[in-house]
Each structure stands twice: as structure tokens, then as C-alpha cells.
Amino acid sequence: MSDTLLRIGDLQAGYGDVQVLWGIDIEVPRGAIACLVGSNGAGKTTLMRTISGLIPARAGSIAFDGVDLTGADPERVLRAGIAHVPEGRRLFAAMSVRDNLLMGAYLRTDSTAVAADLERVLGMFPILRERASQDAGTLSGGEQQMCAIARGVMSAPRMLLIDELSLGLAPLVVDELCATLRALNQAGLTILVVEQDVAIALELASCAFVMDTGRVTRSGASADLANDPAIREAYLGSI
């Protein structure tokens, strides 16, 4: 069994006539929390959308646990074991929290295990249990992010993609989310996070990829990147 769960090679993608990704090479280790960092417009969201099949790759390859997913549609990607928590959460606002969570399991047929996983995610996020019958659109921003992550977990993935984990959220909420992600990771889930707050990302993840104008410019252990003078100057300031 390879130590690499997700392998991306020379990946190119974009929108219409605009190319955004230019030869992306990334390897995410099995069992890791990895992060993608970089400024606005670097291509992080485009990369996540290409991995999950929402945007077709123009060139290059995407392999998950040795299976070629290049050109796969979102359903096939999800069936392969990759769940995507999108930027903006994208909950079904007029549906209850419980129904949003069950939508995450819509491809599953193991009803007993689905019920157990529903109880599990409600245990991870007790506020969602309190809000289970409430419309998801009435939740606070932090509660919506919890619901979006829990919905992703309900698909029983082997890898979770999370786009913009902390955007617009209070620090205490971010700390709670990071603690939950660490617990999920310790239980065996591989996680790839897009995060604009580089300090948060490098503290959460064990390895990181720095993107700039559609290319990966740096990669390595998070601790090494956090101590890299160029990274500190560009993203971390005086901390």
C-alpha cells in the first residue's frame, strides 16, 4: 500500500478561455492533514473543484489510492471516497439541519451505519443536535460550517476536502473546528484544507503546499515552512 493517498501530476484546469492551474504537482500522504495556502486568486479553490470533478482537467492526472480519477464526475469522485466541503458551505438553506446531514449520505445504502454516523456527527457537534429540526439557513456562520463538515463526514469518506475552513468565523469557533478535524484525522480520515490564514493552516496541518498564480511554489512539512524566512515575510508577518 502506497503512503500517498492523493497524487496529482502536471494538472491544468481553468474556466472557459482562462487557464488557472498550470502544472500542479501534489502528493498528500495517507492519514495526514495537509493544507493549501496562498493569496486570493492563487488557484486553491479551482484545484479543489478540479479534484472533486466540478471542473474538468485540461491536462495532467488525478489519482486517488492508485485509482485514476482524471475526468471523473463528482458522483464517481464521491463514490471513490473523496468528499468536498465547498467554499461558502452551500447548505440547503430551507432544509433542516438533520436533512442536510442525511443528504451527505445520499449515495449510501447501509442504513444502520448511516444512522450510527448521524449520531456520531451530532456527538461531534452538540449544537447541531440542538438545531437538528431548524432550517440550516437560520444557523450562524460557525454552525453552518459545522453542518457542512458534518455533512461531508456523513458520506463516510476516506479523504475530506475543506475549502476556506475559517473564513468569517470567530477564533473560538475556528479552534473548535480544528480540534474536531484533529479528532477525525486521528480516527483515520485524511484531510486537505484550503485556508487563507496561513498561521492557522500551518498549525493544523502536518504538511503544506504554497500556491501562487496557479502553481505550487513551495511544499514540505508545515513546521519547516513556518520557519522559512520567505514564507514568514510573505504570509506570517512578525509572528
Describe the structure.
The protein is α/β, with parallel strands linked by helices and about 240 residues long. It has two domains: about 5-80 and about 155-235, P-loop containing nucleotide triphosphate hydrolases (Rossmann fold, 3-Layer(aba) Sandwich), CATH 3.40.50; about 90-150, no CATH class. Helices cover about 40% and strands about 25% of the residues. It is built from ten helices and ten strands. The protein has helices spanning about 45-50, 75-80, 95-105, 110-125, 125-130, 140-155, 170-185, 200-205, 220-225, 230-235; strands spanning about 5-15, 20-30, 35, 60-65, 65-70, 80-85, 160-165, 190-195, 205-210, 215-220. The protein starts with a strand and ends with a helix.
Entry keywords:
239 residues; Rossmann fold; 10 strands; alpha/beta; 2 domains
Summarize the helices and strands and which ones pair or pack:
Blueprint: E1 4-15, E2 18-29, E3 33-37, H1 44-51, E4 59-64, E5 67-68, H2 74-80, E6 82-85, H3 97-103, H4 111-124, H5 126-130, H6 141-153, E7 159-163, H7 171-186, E8 190-194, H8 198-204, E9 207-212, E10 215-221, H9 222-226, H10 229-236
Parallel strand pairs: 3-8, 3-9, 6-7, 7-8
Antiparallel strand pairs: 1-2, 1-4, 4-5, 9-10
Please indicate the count of domains.
Answer: 2
Large-scale geometry:
globular
Based on secondary structure, the structural category is: alpha/beta
Radius of gyration: 17 Å
How is the main sheet built? 6 strands, mixed
Q: Any idea what the CATH superfamily of the largest domain is called?
A: P-loop containing nucleotide triphosphate hydrolases
